[in-house]
Amino acid sequence: MKTKKTLSLLALLLWVVFSAQRVGINTSDPKATLEVKASNPQNPSSTDGFLVPKVEKLNLNLTADQDGMIIFLSKDWIDDSVSPNIIYTAGLYTFDWNHTLLTGNWLKLLASKSTTKAITVFRSLSSGKVFVGDVGGNSRIVDQEFPAEIIKNDNINSAKIFAKTSQTETFDVTFKNALENNEYLTIVTLESKGNANVIEDANCYIPGTADFKPTGFKVTVKCSGGRHNLVMNVLVFDLYKGE
Question: Which residues are 216's β-sheet partners?
Answer without folding.
Answer: 174, 213
